[in-house]
Design brief:
The protein has about 180 residues and is of the alpha/beta class. Helices cover about 40% and strands about 20% of the residues. It has one domain: Leucine Aminopeptidase, subunit E, domain 1, CATH 3.40.220. The protein has a seven-stranded mixed sheet, sandwiched between helices. Strand 4 and strand 5 form a beta hairpin.
Length: about 180
Amino acid sequence: MEIKINKSVLSLVEGDLTKQDAEAIVNAANKSLRGGGGVDGAIHRAGGPKILEECMKIGRCETGEAVITTGGNLKARYVVHTVGPVYRDGIHNEPKLLENAYKNSLKLASSKGIKSIAFPSISTGAYGYPLEEAAEIALGTAIKYLKEHNDIELIRFVLFGKKALEAFEKATFPFLSSGQST
């Protein structure tokens, strides 16, 4: 699925984030930036030791913030590392922290002149964020960003499994009815 927003494209695909040809991919990292499970582990394994070397120099990344490293052995030139919130109950600032993770990743990409970026569904794995709620926040943040900025030409959400893809597709319907094209 693709949505045109101004001169940019937002797309949803099911696939492997580590194989994307976007200029940057986003890592759902942990605060220590040392690699871990899920998307984080996959990116570190596929990208090789150069990513971890740079992460060690950076040191930490707080929840909702973003940092950038090389893409190492990945097709992507860069990895933007962001830390999403651990979901507790939805009333401990989790929605704002998740929005910030997406927004700060996009701001960092823009500041580096990156034109295409691929995201996973941040915080919906081990961090337990409900998929449907996370999809609405992710898409709302990305669409708002593209409406206000024209420097990023492509935002791609690369979703792991049919369930995640369907949740994101369902979350796009309110945006489609507001005059966006597919």
